[in-house]
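Me: I'm a chemist; would you kindly supply a protein sequence with its structure tokens?

Assistant:
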Amino acid sequence: MLSTMTKLVSHPKNRFRHLAATALFALASSPSAASFSSPSLGSWGSIVRGGSLSPQSPLPTARSSLLQRSLASTTTTDLSEASTIAGDTMKPAEKLEALRAKMKELSLDVMIIPSDDPHLSEYVPEAYMRRKFMSGFGGSAGTAVVTQEEAHLWTDSRYWNEASMTIDGSLWTLQKQGQPKVKTIVGYLGDLAAGRFESHGALKVGIDPFVHPASFAKDLKEAFAESAKKELDRSDDANPIGELDTSHPNLIDPIWGEARPEVPYNAFRPHPLEFAGASVAEKVESVRKEMEEKKATMTVFGALDDVAYLLNVRAMGDVDTCPVGIAYATVTNDEITLYCDPRKVESAEVKEHLKEVTIKEYDAIVDDVKAHCEAEGNKVWIDCSRSNLAISSVIPEKLLVDSQNAITPMKACKNDAELEGMRKAHVVDGAAMAKFIAWLENAIVNEGKSVSEVEIDEVLTGYRAEQPGFLECSFPTIAGVGPNAAIIHYRAVEDEVMKHLDASQPILIDSGGQYTYGTTDVTRTWHFGEATEEFKDTYTRVLKGNIGVDSMIFPEDTPGFVLDVFARKALWEAGKDYGHGTGHGVGAALNVHEGPHSISPRFGNKEGLKKGMVVSNEPGYYEDGNFGIRIENLLEMQYVKPEHNDPSFEVGPAEKKFLKFARLTMIPIQKNLIKLDLMTKAELDWLDSYHAEVFEKVSPLLEAGSPAMKWLEKSCEKFDRS
């Protein structure tokens, strides 16, 4: 009721709850300039019933990160979640027992349970969190492998701490992916097949083809052949030592039973042309030109962000923190088809936007691709590395065009409208962060309070929600105090792991926002007391790495791994390093993690860096049980010479187009953690220049004399070099 809601909103702590309940984005007034207010969250009753909206509610289903925070519920992807999904009452041992019984019934020796949904998404709806249901591990990357005798979980270095804390060590063995003595999954299966072939025959491996990439079958076949030759000195062609079985429905779902959440079906919304920069017709025309060159008559898009980008649509609630909807799309020479739940396209606005698009049932995609292949002269273009095996397996090899799809580079190289939206998002994000850090510093330093990691997460989200166009967080916020910051993908809830921030410990905060016009992602490490000399030394080296990458000038099409060493040089000089990549691509009002480019020590990604790409720059250092440090900015790639922006400009045969980085993130770096003697004059000049730019762009959004403005003025002062 209006009177009740008015009272609720009048309290500053409840402002964000009101925002979440009344709009897709917030336009709330700023906190009073005379005092600090905390737009934090708390429990606020139940809004959503089941997998769809209650009649009174304008909100998407409970998969929305924005709504989840307003309900103070746990997240779906990180460490601090419970090890079981809501409604799950089975014990871990019971799940394995049930799975093994079904495997025995079907004569399966191995069952593989990945993280993926049918679109191979990084973050997935809860309905597809089968690996988490079985193992208890909820990180965004990892694969479970179950045999009759053993259960293994593979995950990378970002999640080793989290996985070891969430799986039952008496049932599961953690395989630390990337360690020298740890085999890959296909390598493990190849050796397992070779070891038992003489006594038991071929190893039978079961998978759900909808949640494995098309490339997996080829990789496993090659691993079987290699092990057969190496271990048994035999050819694997005539009598393979292992085989892949994709003939059974997913084995986890019957075990999960009625407790398995419904697959969400939140509505699409048109993404305005002023932010998209190119119409659907223009994008489809570009795709068809590429199809003509490849002699393809159909191209299939399975990744959710590819579909959203192609059709200029977004959704909220299907996948936490990702503005995409569950759907496939295909383009042929004369038709554009969207495969989705029809409830996603019911509104008149969406119907008008998609009037040139044929809408079909979500599950019709496989049969339609198969039927297209049966017509004379047709060929299908699909990126097998980003498409599931169920779709690719119905395309005969002679009719398959397997290469990067046309949307991937279009999406990566932002147009002018997309870049302008990204710049705007980072400026308003800077204003939100200024208000937040001013509040946090006041609470810790002036009021002597200790603030929980959970409240820090909630208050920061509340300040972002005050910005125009805010929709939800761009990923689950990481707010790690002291040793929790060394858990790279940590997420706090109120449990025994959660810590409180005071002046005695540092905090790492990695967070971002989804706005209607852009996506942000920033990490800062703060200390509101007296840091140790070791901490300052390491912090300064991390900062030097950030500046090293930021300052690079390099030829266009340089692979990202070439730049990675500049992020690590200062750390290496001190015998230190970090286990994750330095940078990932970022979508424009799309997923916070986007390919195909990256900055990483792994040489496998040879994708060249190009004008218009956006990449993160986030070196760090993590000391288990002590602290974690990371400093992250998003960067936009621009030509060094403005004349190179003219498509008609011709570069001479001995010349190259060179790129530089322009900073998107507009948030100060804490200066009193920097050791002056480690910094060069050029690095100090960079710092002063950056802070001048931050102040110029962010200060107009803050009220004169407000705590946030005072904090920004102080933080952006020139570095004292005396």
Notes: The chain has 22 helices and 30 strands. The CA atoms of residues 545 and 567 lie 4 Å apart. Residues 416-446 form the longest helix (31 residues). The first strand starts at residue 110 and ends at 113.
